[in-house]
């Protein structure tokens, strides 16, 4: 299959599962940088522009391979087809265990010379290096650290209902009741499996504490997975159903964010890419919106990192690939890009001066959590377990949220069974 047919095939798969087809990619030349990515929302595109401009100044033209679809599911389908067809992109945005799979399959190139020269091992959190390196080879470049245990709140709505920051799950429910009474949708949710799974990441950590989250999702400890605490986590997730609007099913994450921006909803539980949408709408942290850690998870960072996996490419494309890696790891790009994106720099040595109050909190939180052992990979976002297990998780959580799995007891049993089957 040639390159274009491959893209068409994956576009058809993507369309079949409800995503927008990717734009045709252009083969990269010597002074080109090609990146497959799913950064197509307003905030995401604005952040990506920082990287494009930086590389343009260095004389590189940007060859975008955008595959719309939040969370990157459609992008990963496209990537798989391109790699299988022997025509991988120069680089691809990628999450956690997906990168490890491609590395193990021998598909990735390394940028060891750059990594050594700039001593990346010193400036990146150790936890991330499990995903950026394989057998000591640097083959994925982390441009940021996102975290999923955030709540994004419309400040004016909060003032109108007389709300304050919820410190535990019961207070969260009480706050949402206030919004409901005032006729505002309490919780803006995009009812897609990956988004519901993100919500459940936070609910689990809030219900059982971060130690429990780690036992269940990082260690896949049988006792934790089958515990009453997990059942309570599902009960808590079920409680949240009462606070979403009737049209939530299938909604894109950025449309849910827009509901909060406009004041049609009080809050969204979402990774800090949501902040990028507030920013492009010219809304300011502290003045127009507020960021809280999901109640009961302050002090913990449930992270995902956007990495660029470096694929094996013809020698003629190598300069572009190295330029992308170099730019993405530069302090200047990590500062400017992440201030717009909502994430925090992957490099721990980037000053927080360019960041708003939420970004400053995000940077401090990562440092604290990294030191305290509470910097933990997101199960929803492929940083706790390999793709097959993460997918099983998405599946059970979404079936439960939408009522296909009826009780929390069944959900606990199904989750354990599906994880075992996916191992
Ligand atoms: C995440 C990714 C973010 C953001 C989000 C929504 O997987 O890490 O950068 O793009 O999806 O598309």
Account of the 3D structure:
The protein is of the alpha/beta class and 423 residues long. The protein has 2 domains: 3-146 and 304-372, D-Maltodextrin-Binding Protein, domain 2 (3-Layer(aba) Sandwich), CATH 3.40.190.10; 147-302 and 378-422, Periplasmic binding protein-like II (D-Maltodextrin-Binding Protein, domain 2, 3-Layer(aba) Sandwich). Helix content is 51%, strand content 14%. It is built from 19 helices and 15 strands. The protein has helices at residues 3-16, 42-57, 73-84, 96-104, 112-117, 120-123, 126-132, 155-161, 169-181, 193-218, 222-225, 228-240, 253-262, 274-280, 318-328, 331-341, 357-372, 387-401, 408-422, and strands at residues 32-37, 61-66, 91-94, 133-134, 137-138, 140-142, 144-147, 150-154, 185-187, 265-269, 289-293, 301-304, 307-310, 344-345, 375-377. The strands form 4 sheets. It has a 5-stranded mixed β-sheet, with helices on both faces. It has a 4-stranded mixed β-sheet with strand order 14-7-12-15, with helices on both faces. Strands 9-10-8-11 form a 4-stranded mixed β-sheet, sandwiched between helices. Helix 1 runs antiparallel to helix 3 and helix 2 packs across helix 14. The two termini are 31 Å apart. Residues 1-24 have low confidence and may be disordered. It binds beta-D-galactopyranose (GAL). Residues 38-39, 44, 70-72, 95, 146, 253, 273, 304, 306, 381 line the site of beta-D-galactopyranose (GAL).
Q: Which topology of the largest domain does CATH recognise? A: D-Maltodextrin-Binding Protein, domain 2
Shape annotation: globular
Q: What is the averaged pLDDT score?
A: 94
User: Which ions and ligands are bound to the chains?
Assistant: beta-D-galactopyranose
Largest sheet: 5 strands, mixed
CATH class wording of the largest domain: Alpha Beta
How much of the sequence lies in strands comes to 5-15%
Overall CATH architecture of the largest domain: 3-Layer(aba) Sandwich
How many β-strand stretches? 15
State the distance separating the first and last CA atoms: 31 Å
What is the number of helices? 19
Which structural category do the helix and sheet elements fall into? alpha/beta
Report the C-alpha radius of gyration, rounded: 21 Å
């Amino acid at each position: 299959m040639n390159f274009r047919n491959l893209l068409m095939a994956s576009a058809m798969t993507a369309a079949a599962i409800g995503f927008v087809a990717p734009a045709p990619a252009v083969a990269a030349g010597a002074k080109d940088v090609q990146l497959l990515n799913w950064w197509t929302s307003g905030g995401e595109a604005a952040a990506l522009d920082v990287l494009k401009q930086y590389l343009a100044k260095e004389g590189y033209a940007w060859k975008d391979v955008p595959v719309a679809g939040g969370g990157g599911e459609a992008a990963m389908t496209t990537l798989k087809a391109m790699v299988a067809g022997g025509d991988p992109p120069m680089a691809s945005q990628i999450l956690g265990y997906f990168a490890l799979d491609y590395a193990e399959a021998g598909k990735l190139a390394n940028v060891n010379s750059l990594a050594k020269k700039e001593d990346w091992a010193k400036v990146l959190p150790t936890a991330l290096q499990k995903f950026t390196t394989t057998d000591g080879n640097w083959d994925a470049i982390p441009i940021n650290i996102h975290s999923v245990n955030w709540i994004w709140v419309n400040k004016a709505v909060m003032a109108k209902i007389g709300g304050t920051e919820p410190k535990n799950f019961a207070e969260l429910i009480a706050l949402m009741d206030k919004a409901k009474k005032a006729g505002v949708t309490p919780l803006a949710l995009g009812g897609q499996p990956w988004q519901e799974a993100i919500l459940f990441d936070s609910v689990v950590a809030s219900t059982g504490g971060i130690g429990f989250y780690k036992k269940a999702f990082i260690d896949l400890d049988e006792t934790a997975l089958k515990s009453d605490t997990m059942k309570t986590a599902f009960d808590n997730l079920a409680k949240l159903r009462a606070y979403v609007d009737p049209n939530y099913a299938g909604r894109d994450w950025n449309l849910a964010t827009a509901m909060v921006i406009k004041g049609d909803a009080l809050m969204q539980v979402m990774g800090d890419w949501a902040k990028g949408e507030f920013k492009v709408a010219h809304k300011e942290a502290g003045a127009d919106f507020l960021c809280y850690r999901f109640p009961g998870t302050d002090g913990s960072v449930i992270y995902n990192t956007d990495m660029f996996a470096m694929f094996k490419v013809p020698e003629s494309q190598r300069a572009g690939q190295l330029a992308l890696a170099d730019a993405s790891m530069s302090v200047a790009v990590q500062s400017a890009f992440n201030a717009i994106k909502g994430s925090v720099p992957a490099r721990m040595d980037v000053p927080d001066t360019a960041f708003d109050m939420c970004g400053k909190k995000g940077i401090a939180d990562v440092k604290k959590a990294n030191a305290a052992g509470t910097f933990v990979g997101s199960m929803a976002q492929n940083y706790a377990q390999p793709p097959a297990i993460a997918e099983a998780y998405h599946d059970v959580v979404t079936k439960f949220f939408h009522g296909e799995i009826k009780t929390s007891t069944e959900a606990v049993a199904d989750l354990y069974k599906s994880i075992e089957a996916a191992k």
